[in-house]
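Let us practice reading a record.
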Amino acid sequence: MKFPLYLALRNLLRHPGRNLLYILGVSITAALLLDMTLLSGGIRVSLQRVLKQMGYEIRLSPRGTLPFETDAQINGFSTIQSRVENMPEVDHVDALLGTTIAVNAKGQTFTSFALGAKMQSLISERIAPLPARSVAINQYLAKAKDIHPGQHIQIWFPGNAQALDTIEPQIVRVDRVLSFELDAEGQYTIFFPLQMLQELMGQRQQDPVSVIMVKLKDSTAAPRINEQLNKEFPQITAYTISSVIDAVDKQLSYFKQFAYILGGISLAVTFVLVFIITTISFHDRLGEIALLRAIGLSNRTLFITILFEGILTSLASAVFGFILGRFVADWLDWILKSAPGLPENFSFFVMEPSSFIRAGIVLLATGFFAGLYPASAAARLPVAETLREEIL
């Protein structure tokens, strides 16, 4: 194998300028292939990472919906909590209530996301409970509106005045500025204790929540407990982390289809480019190849040499292409993450070693198959006729 590899390297280095242009051309398609590989699996990996960071194995949402997919609510949380926590496999139960709230601060009126939680499960810092009639705000709201701890703000619920007992704006105190795990980039969030937000909404008796989260003592029991919860509570749908990801995958399947289509195009272009490169190189060296055959170089050695040329071209393109693809992926990720409603630490392009390895293997395989035809043609080349036409 050493001699065919030496011949392949020598042949490629004989025309460095031309081959460099070829390699740069293939690098562009290699970058596209890598980016589409990252995109096809990045959403799933990123979502799984976000969900695992929260530390809950099961999530309950209104029947037929995903968590926070709609404004639908689960009523009677305290009753559900008591029943679920009585299960021996359950460690504890938490809940989140989300809604839109209108705010007036320093003469400015704007809307914000209101998040109520039984516990401070989405707060990065583990802190003492909030004082009565106090809230916490996230860093985006504090910075954009220049709100500091100790200041008071007015809040009310737009569009719900007729349905609520508390029509007049309520005044609450900002106790602290915190980071929230699921905040989208630039999203305003105000955090309330769950019961306080329910009271302000005039729905304390209904005891509503948007999603219930269940922490298990043994995470391996999640599928069995999930099935049991779906049977016991007909008004809700229970999800494990994997089932949530599968459901989101179905809703975002167009991203995968987009990735597969562009990835397929990049593979086709890569195949054609490597095929053209190796074929042109082969035809430029017909006389040389016939002479090598005449002096005793075996068909097998020639065949392997031409194959190596295609593989080495793909390998060099992969190196340049993956560097280019990394920069392009970061740029595209920045654009896609600007969409509203995405968690701040969510990513569409996740740089995993397995993605690089998978894209590299596919690219090298493409170079191998693209080099099969010229390699076979070199092995079948008629020596005498070629020497007469090319040399004599």
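A brief commentary: Confidence is low (pLDDT under 50) at residues 161-166.
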